Amino acid sequence: MPTLRSTLGRMAGPVLSLAVLMAAGATPAAATETAGVPDARSCFDARTSLDARFAACSRVIDAGGEAGRDLAVAHCNRAHVRIERRDLDAALADVDAAIRIDPAFACSYSNRGRALAFQGDLDAAIAAYDEALRRDPDFAVAYNNRGDAFLKKGEIDRAIADFDRAVALAPDLVLAYDNRAGAYLRKRDHVRALADLDRAITLAPDRAMSYLVRGNVHRGMQDYERAIADYGKVIELLPDDARGWRNRGLIHLLRYEDRKALPDYDRAIALDPADVYSYNNRARARMAVGDRKGAIADFRKALALSPGLPQALDGLKSLGAKP
Question: Cα 258 vs. chain centroid, distance in angstroms?
């Protein structure tokens, strides 16, 4: 029978999949030469904020002053913003427009793949990435994104092969190192996962998701001191993101530091009140410090969010309380 702490360890929840999801975004299309109008420059410049890029690309499209590849880029870049906003049907409409205008532009097919992947149609997404790579065999981002789709399908070796190709073509592509690390973690190859994450952090030392995944690797290796340090860095970089807090709270529980876990879970729940695992794990911490009433309330909240959750039912039973 699993111990309480081993059960908590499994209850880290979908953190890795979220980290991978967040790590899989495609880079917007590169800027092309234009007539030099300010809207075009803002639309085509990847450094432009999402809101500003959306507005600029919309003005470029509506003005009718661009044609051919430039107009396709405007549609493709607006699609990218819409994907980030999860306005997926509108994104696909922009991608379709870009492909009609310039069927040879590989980025449009890659963005189509991203939108389809977010809609859950992974096979169609992979077909779109295949099409992007047929048009541009050296398109590193398309390899990265196809690898992410393979990873979501559980085809880990095919995913790693795509991430390998992505980093071979673009050695500074941080997303691919993050994603390959996630794939290696799925295979419990902690050494390779750490090497990729160390590389990602060297390239982008302020990228919180790399620290998050590296914390997961350290947790899997039971190197809790380093895991706490990495999750602490996530909290430093993204103080309003629940994942750093709840993962650090989990490490405190695994180290039997129950009083330290409580404020981390308090903050995680304040930031993400729908996370069932934070309620369940805070209940465990409350049990450990003798807060029976608080533990019962948290277990019941976990059950309200996830009816029939075995850990919460077991917790209430051990406290002699009804669900």
Answer: 28
8 A C-beta contact, residue 199 and residue 207 = no
pLDDT at position 109? 94
Joined tokens for residue 84:
């980030």
Give yes or no for residue 10 having a pLDDT over 50.
no
Q: How confident is the model at residue 174, as a pLDDT?
A: 95
Report the amino acid identity of residue 191.
V
Query: Is residue 69 a contact partner of residue 105, using CB atoms and an 8 Å limit?
Result: yes
**129 pLDDT above the threshold of 70:** yes
Q: 300 and 322 in contact (C-beta within 8 Å)?
A: no
Count the residues in the chain: 323
Q: To 10 degrees, what angle do helices 88-101 and 106-118 make? A: 160
Per-residue confidence (pLDDT) for residue 9, from 0 to 100: 37
CA–CA dist 46, 32 (Å, integer): 11
- Residue-level pLDDT at 2: 36
- Contact predicate 94/78, CB 8 Å: yes
Q: Is the dihedral of CA 162, 167, 172, 178 positive or negative?
A: positive
| H helical segments located in 14-155 | 15-23, 38-44, 50-63, 68-84, 88-101, 106-118, 122-135, 140-152
- Residue where the block lists tokens 């790590």: 23
Position 57 scores a pLDDT of: 87
Q: How far apart are CA 230 and CA 209, in angstroms?
A: 10
**Which pTM value belongs to this model?**
0.77
Instruction: Reduce the DSSP state of residue 189 to 3 states and report it.
Output: coil
Please state, as a whole number, how many other Cβ atoms lie within 10 Å of the Cβ of residue 104. 10
Distance of CA 243 to the CA centre of its chain: 11
Cβ contact 27:7 at 8 Å: no
Instruction: Give, in order, the Cα–Cα distances in Å from 42 to each of 105, 110, 226, 299, 313.
Output: 20, 21, 41, 50, 54
Average pLDDT, whole number, for the chain? 86
Q: Are 244 and 231 in contact (CB under 8 A)?
A: yes
Integer Cα distance of 242 and 239 in angstroms: 8
- Report residue 122 as tokens: 């992974």
